[in-house]
Design goal:
A hairpin with a 5-residue loop joins strand 8 and strand 9. About 40% of the residues lie in helices and about 20% in strands. The chain is of the alpha/beta class. The model has no long low-confidence stretch (mean pLDDT about 90). The strands form three sheets. Strands 2-1-3-4-5 form a five-stranded parallel beta sheet, with helices on both faces.
Amino acid sequence: MRILIVEDEKRMADALCEILRLEKYEVDHFDNGKDGLAAIESGIYDIVILDVMLPGMNGYEIAREARKNGIITPILMLTAKAELDDKVTGLDSGADDYLTKPFMTKELLARIRALSRRALGTPDGKLSYADITLDTSKVTLSCTTNGQSVRLSEKECRIMEYLIANNGQILTREQLAVKIWGYESEAEYNNVEVYLSFTRKKLAFIDAKTEIKSVRGIGYELRCGDV
């Protein structure tokens, strides 16, 4: 799961990045409103942690603009203001949840887990397509017709999560590279091919009819003969 942090206070941003990376989340950070909004609108993030007081644009403005432009990524808004009116303003701007500084790490992580379940559209962290089910909590892929399952690597799981969540769409190699490895990663595009090959082998191992198909000159999509 890839999380975006938009926070201009360096100590807070560094602490958040460290906490989330220790929990095995992929994390990117921007320290101003303009770059933060552009990152949110890229559509590659699963959750956004958004500070209210930012240079350029404040968090309320960013949330409103993102929602106006059709971005549905869950937003957790952070602020030092605890007044009810400020919380209402945040939620009305498009935030999904609101956390007042200072906060406990356990509460932050619990709210992120809740938002991630909401983002997946399922309370148990499972996503399904045709004859396969991905369990993101156990990092396993199962075939629903024969009961076979296999454990995935972290990258394989994220690839399948992205493909299932966007089934019916063709995803480009660039979209997959940025989603899985991030903007600042030095990973080359052939890494996408390598991990797609690994993931295809896992689908074949469980005898699933669902396949990752290459669409020449465009990208990749999930297909199944029965759908």
